[in-house]
Structures are given as C-alpha cells and as structure tokens.
Amino acid sequence: MRRGTAVAWGLTGGLVMGMAVAALGQPAPNTLTAEERAVGWRLLFDGTTTAGWRGFRQTGMPGGWAVVDGALTRVGKGGDIVTEEEFSDFELSFEWQVAPGGNSGVFFGVSEDAKAVWHTAPEYQILDNAGHKDGATPATSTGANYALHAPARNVARPAGQWNQSRIVVRGPHVEHWLSGEKIVEYELGSADWTALVAASKFKEHSAYGTVRPGRIALQDHGDRVAFRSIKIRAR
C-alpha cells in the first residue's frame, strides 16, 4: 500500500493489542506505572487530546493531526508539531507506527526562531525501511541521527506494527534506542559531529544542534504516522 492508499491504514489493531498488553499486567498505552511516576516520568500525550502540543510557529494544533484510537496521528497535511514546553537534558520514550512506505521523525532542540524544525534540531529518523528508498542507506534508515549517524543495526519492526523508541540527552551526549537496544550515540559539538555536519546540508544553519532548551517535534513528512505512550523524564 503506497501513499495513494495510505488513508485506509488504521490503528484499531494497535488498540486491541494495547488492551491485550494491559491484560498481561503490562501498562496500557498512554499510562504511567507507579514506579515510573516515582522516578520522575510524566506523559507528554494523554491519549485523548492534543493538549501540550501545537503547530510549529503556530498558536494551535493544525487540522492534519488528530487523536485516532489513542494515538497522536498525522492524518492529513498539517506541518510539524511541537511541544509547548522546552527541554534541556531528558530521556524521552515513545511508541510509533508508520504506514507502508512512510517517513517521519522526532526532533529535539527545536527553536522557533528558525524557519524550519530541521534547521536547529537533530532528528531521530522514523521510516518504513523496507518500503521507502531511504531505508537502503543506513544513515537515513530508522533510528538514525538523520543523515549523520547510522544505527548499529536494523531492529525496526515492519510498517503497521508498533515500535518502541527512546532518546537520551545528557549534556552533549545523545543516545538513540530502538526495541530495547542502543543503536546510535554521539556527542554534540565533538570533532566527529562538527565534521559530519560540515559535510551535510545542515552546514548552512549555524544553530544546528546547539539549542538548549528546545522543543520536541513530530514530523509531517506527507505520510501517515502515529505516536503513543510519549513520556519524558527531565534530568
């Protein structure tokens, strides 16, 4: 199913699976365990409303994003969305599901002084590796620090299935996790970082990777993508 038919892609199966997971004693989507609360985790998405989010450089939520079956979902053209809050050091956990052939991303360190999210913010790439051409290049495949650092290996689940990801930011140190595995790590401002940025399209943007605190963003790349269980622990 390609972009022309992606509108038929749904999340009902994910909702049923979430109910089954809860029945097995694991937390239901968009909830926190007592242990998570005790160590400082909180939800950035309540599973019902878009509270806490708005369009990039907008005052409200664009119509292309909606809550569908308990997931914050890109359902039509709307542009990238950002958190109302800004964050510095944090651990971000989230689940995502992309349509066949789909492409999206999660960004951190977003400044709305820039004209686009990617002008300042590194991206955790989200992709259907098997159905999108970017999946053939490791540095633009799922879990990559987009166009800069490739994942150690491909542990992404196929399109239409829920993936679990985590981004850890501690000072200049950044980690990308997928399916319980650390697949990328890098140091903002390091010699390696500087050389890679200088050889990329990001070299035109002097603030790239330097904004603290900054917003977290979910990307509208023209494809249907859904996010749930978005939770954060600030450090």
Précis, in short:
With 235 residues, the protein is mainly beta. It has one domain (3-234): Exo-inulinase, domain 1 (Jelly Rolls, Sandwich).
Please, could you describe this protein's structure?
It is a single chain. The relative contact order is 0.23. The protein has one domain (3-234): Jelly Rolls (Sandwich). It has 3 helices and 13 strands, in the order ααβββββββββββαββ. Strand 9 (163-170) and strand 10 form a beta hairpin. The protein has helices at 12-23, 34-38, 191-198, and strands at residues 42-43, 53-55, 65-68, 71-74, 81-83, 90-98, 103-110, 123-127, 163-170, 173-178, 181-187, 215-218, 225-234. It is mainly beta and 235 residues long.
Distance between the termini: 41 Å
User: What is the assembly state of the chains in this entry?
Assistant: single chain
| Mean pLDDT rating | 92
Low-confidence stretches: 1-24
Largest sheet: 8 strands, antiparallel
Protein structure class: mainly beta
- How much of the sequence is in beta strands? 25-35%
Number of helices, where a helix is a run of at least 4 consecutive DSSP H or I residues: 3
> What's the CATH architecture name?
Sandwich
Number of strands: 13
The percent of residues in helical segments reads 10-25%
| CATH level 4 superfamily | Exo-inulinase, domain 1
At CATH level 3, the topology is: Jelly Rolls
What series of H and E elements makes up the topology? HHEEEEEEEEEEEHEE
How many domains is the backbone divided into?
1
Assigned CATH class: Mainly Beta
Radius of gyration: 17 Å
